Amino acid sequence: RRRSEDAEAAARAEAEGLRNELREARFYLEEARKATKARIRSLERMLKQKERREKETDETIADLRTQIYRLTKAKDAFHGKTGEGRRNVEQGARQKEARERNVAEKEHYDALPRRKIAPSRRLTAVAEEKSPALLEKWAWTKLTPAHIVNPTMPTKAKRRFAVMYSCWDEDGIKVGELEHDGEMVHFDAAFETLDDANQRAQHVFYCQNKFGEAVEIFGEREGIEKETQEDGTLNLIFGSLLVEWRVFVLPYLEYLMELKKQKEALEKARKYQEEEQQKRQERTDVLHKIRDVPARIQNPPKTSRVPSKGKGFTVMKTNRSGRRGDCRRSISFDSSFKTKDDANMRARYLFYVDDPPWDEEIFDLNLLDLGEENEIVDGMVSIKYSHPDYGSTVFTVLPDNVFAFINSGHGDQKVYDHSLPNKKKLDKMPAKVRKPPAACRNAAKKKQYTVWSSLGYGNDGFHTYYGPPGKEFFASFDTMEEANLAAEHKFFVVNPWGFDPGDDDYKATIGSFSKVSTRNFVKYSVTPDDDRCWTVGVAPSIAFRYLKDAVDKSSTD
């Protein structure tokens, strides 16, 4: 019996030793599994970053290749290696020859004896004085039909071609009644056949030009360009240092279309001028009223100058630097009033009279358009003046609590402990919070409280930093409770990495988040290692547009 008991004790001891070894092996196996899984996550994160960098590199290379292609094409065109480049070079050579020829022609024309010639005898007299060949060149004008020399307007059904001309006036400015191909042109006549229109164009070009004696030397000039377009219409051009004269044929339908466009443009410009005049008159009336504002508006009492004792509506001044790359903005409190009308009147008085952002007198009517006045909401105004070099100045009327939110500091904030919410809690949130309807996603018609989000790299010294990322509008709600719940769901569930609550990757990425409450408006933020900063917050809708880097447009995600 003793030997049996000893053997049984030895067996139990051996079994206990084996169980200890098994537990130890399982412990080391679990540690190795965790280390392997952590290593796999790290490698996957590195692989994603590598793929993202490779994608950015490919895009950069594609952009560079496009720029190189454009630069090479521009270089080839400049040196005449392409068809367009050769045409540009040939055109430049022709223009240079024409300029040199015009200089010589001017010197020759200045040296000619001057005497007055009757218009009816001009061609014959010039031909007799200078060259008998000139009379032969102009012989076709003697045979021009009467309906070409003195045309009559045909019926609408027979108006197929229009003869147009353009010229320089005495001041060297092109004038006309219709804009065509970037220049002002005049209408001359309309014809049924293309031959009659072309013949009329030649007659007007040679015999009815607008330059008096300039026609006398047409016969000796080589600067006349006569082009026949693909549709058979003529284009006659003569240019020199003294004059420029062009006559061309245009399809009548095209002429009517351009004339209609010009009338529409003129009508639009007229309406715009009338609207601007009306706005100008309204602005003038406002300024005249501002001159007679009460003394309590011009010099508010001390009780209205204390930010912590707001009376209802605050007048806020915002200055922003205009230097490139400088995004600094300063907000200052001016005064507070019981009614919106008094606050609006104070803002206008400050902008136009007491503290204008320019040196001139505002009552100069030329400066009335400097102020851009808009209504924010519920009749509260915002008046802005912008200058590309000196920045912008804005006087805004806001409710006292909105100004307090915009101007709030760290003393009004509460910081919460880090604790990830339960997945079941997130899933049981109301459907309106988890998936806001279209009415809540409309940035143009915001409800009482706005939920915003931002995603971007911080100033970590490694990634390129362009300043804080933009705060994009996500949704708006009627109650603060709904907005705070939507912000919580947006931050933890609709995160940019796509991790589900409860996953190991989710805990490793979002587990180090921070939660801050400013006047009961929550803000969540997290910045994983070597990654972007993800932030979701809540703000009053009326104050959202004044938050720094706010992007006030409807959400689509």
List the helices and strands and how they pair.
Elements: H1 2-79, H2 83-111, H3 122-130, H4 132-137, H5 139-142, H6 146-149, E1 161-168, E2 174-175, E3 178-180, E4 183-191, H7 194-207, E5 224-228, E6 234-239, E7 244-251, H8 252-291, H9 295-298, E8 313-320, E9 329-337, H10 340-354, E10 372-377, E11 380-387, E12 391-399, H11 400-406, E13 413-416, H12 423-427, H13 431-434, H14 438-441, E14 449-456, E15 471-477, H15 480-492, H16 504-510, E16 514-518, E17 521-526, E18 533-540, H17 541-544, E19 550-551
Parallel strand pairs: 15-19
Antiparallel strand pairs: 1-2, 1-4, 1-7, 3-4, 5-6, 6-7, 8-9, 8-12, 10-11, 11-12, 13-16, 14-15, 14-18, 16-17, 17-18
Helix pairs in contact: 1-2
Question: What can you see in these coordinates?
Answer:
By secondary structure, the chain is an alpha+beta fold. It is built from 17 helices and 19 strands. The protein has helices at residues 2-79, 83-111, 122-130, 132-137, 139-142, 146-149, 194-207, 252-291, 295-298, 340-354, 400-406, 423-427, 431-434, 438-441, 480-492, 504-510, 541-544; strands at 161-168, 174-175, 178-180, 183-191, 224-228, 234-239, 244-251, 313-320, 329-337, 372-377, 380-387, 391-399, 413-416, 449-456, 471-477, 514-518, 521-526, 533-540, 550-551. The strands form three sheets. Strands 1, 2, 3, 4, 5, 6 and 7 form a seven-stranded antiparallel β-sheet that branches. A seven-stranded mixed β-sheet has the order 13-16-17-18-14-15-19. Helix 1 runs parallel beside helix 2 (83-111). The longest helix is centred in the N-terminal third of the chain and has 78 residues, at 2-79. Residues 114-140, 212-221 and 359-369 have low confidence and may be disordered.
